[in-house]
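User: Just a sanity check before I run the rest of the batch. Below are the structure tokens for the first item. I only need the designed sequence back.
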């Protein structure tokens, strides 16, 4: 058999190492590995929560995942696969934060009457309002109660400035000053508007500033 020319050797070598470049490219440009290298801080309280509590490993071994990614990159496969970890879901959050007496459990928001609200604020998932690796405790606007409580009417309204008036004046930033969303703070809603937390204090709290609630929470999650 004729010895291969130098050119043939170079081409064969290039083909032999090509998959490695593709694999490296796939891994380095994968959002998961990029963010592992430059991910933001964890929420206060999550400092000692392990990554795997929220990020569940994807099916398949790392080798199988790389192979599937390479096949996808070179067109041998129609869909990509999750690399290393799958998308974070509410199920992970509820492992630690499922609490009795939740005022707004997300399963309620599957009801047809919340269809529009769910489009606006993705209330069906914890991640519609909360994020991780960011500086915000929640990134929802303090006025989001409007999405579901626009038609609120109280039979007997104890407030000095009643709910009807607050809503007519679009005072949606006032709600979180008296009510907490999950009902997990030891805090009775006051009846005087001047006793509500100031909207600025609420906005700061949502951006990971200090909590306006003086007492410890009813349920504290644990790290495992
Ligand atoms: C309390 C839950 C939680 C913990 C703990 C956590 N993460 Fe995350 N992480 C998230 C959420 C939520 C996102 C947003 C992306 C999503 O929705 O899947 C995210 C995004 C990421 C991403 C980007 C993935 C993508 O597809 O964009 C990477 C990478 C990541 N986290 C790595 C880590 C590492 C490494 C640790 C441990 C040091 C960690 N995370 C701990 C919840 C968590
Ligand atoms: C392994 C357990 C664990 C998991 C999983 C977990 N958390 Fe937590 N979380 C904690 C602990 C512990 C705290 C601190 C104690 C507390 O506030 O109850 C906390 C606190 C929080 C806080 C309050 C932060 C503050 O500054 O007051 C929010 C918001 C939160 N978690 C949201 C989430 C969301 C959203 C998810 C899912 C992406 C999640 N957690 C997953 C354990 C967990
Ligand atoms: C529609 C928006 C929204 C959704 C959906 C949502 N939250 Fe919240 N969450 C908030 C807001 C606003 C706060 C801050 C006000 C407060 O402390 O009640 C908060 C506060 C928290 C806190 C800190 C205070 C406390 O109650 O201990 C935790 C923990 C938390 N959320 C977990 C979750 C988890 C877990 C889910 C999903 C099961 C979820 N949240 C879904 C809006 C939301
Ligand atoms: C995605 C829809 C949705 C959003 C957004 C929402 N709520 Fe509600 N809220 C509900 C549902 C559902 C109930 C249960 C009562 C019912 O079935 O009408 C409820 C009940 C309440 C109650 C009475 C709870 C009790 O235990 O008696 C208060 C107070 C309340 N919401 C305040 C708020 C405030 C304040 C906001 C904004 C921070 C808000 N809600 C945002 C859907 C929502
Ligand atoms: C000054 C404090 C204060 C403000 C501001 C306030 N509320 Fe209330 N709210 C109360 C009190 C007090 C009650 C009656 C006792 C209770 O349910 O805690 C109540 C009751 C409610 C109820 C329960 C109604 C029922 O039929 O049981 C809902 C829902 C509600 N408020 C939503 C809102 C929304 C949405 C806003 C913003 C527009 C708002 N509240 C603003 C103090 C306040």
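Assistant: Here's the designed sequence for the first item:
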């Amino acid at each position: 058999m004729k010895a291969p020319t130098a050119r043939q050797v170079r081409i064969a070598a290039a083909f032999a190492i090509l998959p490695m470049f593709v694999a490296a490219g796939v891994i380095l440009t994968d959002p998961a590995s990029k963010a592992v290298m430059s991910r933001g801080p964890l929420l206060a309280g999550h400092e000692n929560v392990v990554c795997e509590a929220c990020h569940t490993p994807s099916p398949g071994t790392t080798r199988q995942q790389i192979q599937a990614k390479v096949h996808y990159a070179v067109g041998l496969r129609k869909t990509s696969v999750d690399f290393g970890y799958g998308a974070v879901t509410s199920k992970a959050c509820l492992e630690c934060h499922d609490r009795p007496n939740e005022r707004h459990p997300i399963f309620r928001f599957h009801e047809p009457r919340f269809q529009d609200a769910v489009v606006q604020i993705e209330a069906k998932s914890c991640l519609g309002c909360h994020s991780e690796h960011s500086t915000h405790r929640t990134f929802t606007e303090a006025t989001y109660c409007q999405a579901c409580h626009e038609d609120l009417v109280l039979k007997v309204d104890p407030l000095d400035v009643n709910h009807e008036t607050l809503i007519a004046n679009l005072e949606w930033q006032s709600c979180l000053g008296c009510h907490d969303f999950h009902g997990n703070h030891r805090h009775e809603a006051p009846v005087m508007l001047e006793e509500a937390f100031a909207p600025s204090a609420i906005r700061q709290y949502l951006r990971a500033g200090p909590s306006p609630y003086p007492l410890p929470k009813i349920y504290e999650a644990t790290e495992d």
